[in-house]
């Protein structure tokens, strides 16, 4: 009895806090090595933050992923912000975002200013990195499946979730799958009496959360009005990129059509310039939302790149700061825990679907690619090599095999 109580008490402890420098160092390395898009990023995050550094529990990580899937904006970036916030406070969230985002911002701005028209997608090193992303995501599905869908009922729910997302590959379907899985879990799953959510300290008050919600809604409503009243390119950019970050569900490539409708019809750039930036965005690590840096640089140089990047990510901060203080208390209720068991299984299914499309379909085209992916999967899963080393070796292997 006492041993069980002690174990549960240990599981309820607040995670050890870290320094801003620690958060910066880890997130920057991820920002330099996380190729492959949002699903791959979540795999890299899990490998680094859950398995290697144990900054948070597997279930807490899965619940953060589910929460960020609900919110508009770039889900993987929001997960990174949330982890930094839990680790080192509000500034930890900002530093985590900077570390993960800044490398691709710099690279894409450089493309915009000096390398327009280049075709980086033909590079062998990029092909190797995309294949490495297959192994990283497969490893994440493997580990999360064992922990979050360990029995027949939850494994079945994960599989149905994967099939639904594959058949209807839209951002709204991911949200619907999570909602249905949560209701299924609330109705049919029973929370274990011996399991308690791992306690995490949210360094934001509910008053602060309310302020964040007011700012989010106020900017979304009033920026278009101010834009109509004032013919200023900086205000127009703030409105366009902020609205895009506020209204896009699913993140990743889903953001591209909305951005295109904002920047090309306005005369800020041609369709060819837009597509050249899209090609460049495939060759850099980090979140797809940093494509805004390229667009901002085409419009207004370095200053425009920073302005557009800040504008498109600002909604992510406001939404997270508005949600997290309530998420910590809500998830402790028994009914919510049962619902979260279903949601966790759905997250595994969504990641499994992403392993096929877009990760597998974009990277695997030949038996050589399959062999390359199997070797990298074995190195990261059975040999326990770190993800950053896998990425480096995959880039070298891609140059040797595909150039």
Automatic annotation (TrEMBL):
Gene Ontology annotations for the cellular component aspect, listed alphabetically: plasma membrane
Pfam families with a match to the protein in the record: Chromate_transp (PF02417)
Signal peptide region: none
Membrane topology qualifier: Multi-pass membrane protein
InterPro entries for this protein: Chr_Tranpt_l_chain, Chromate_transpt
Keywords for this protein: Cell membrane, Membrane, Transmembrane, Transmembrane helix
Segments traversing the membrane: 90-113, 125-145, 157-184, 204-226, 275-297, 304-324, 336-356, 386-402
GO molecular function: chromate transmembrane transporter activity
Protein's cellular compartments: Cell membrane
Chief localization: membrane
PANTHER family linked: CHROMATE ION TRANSPORTER (EUROFUNG)
Family of this protein: Belongs to the chromate ion transporter (CHR) (TC 2.A.51) family.
Protein name per the record: Chromate transporter
Organism per entry: Marinithermofilum abyssi
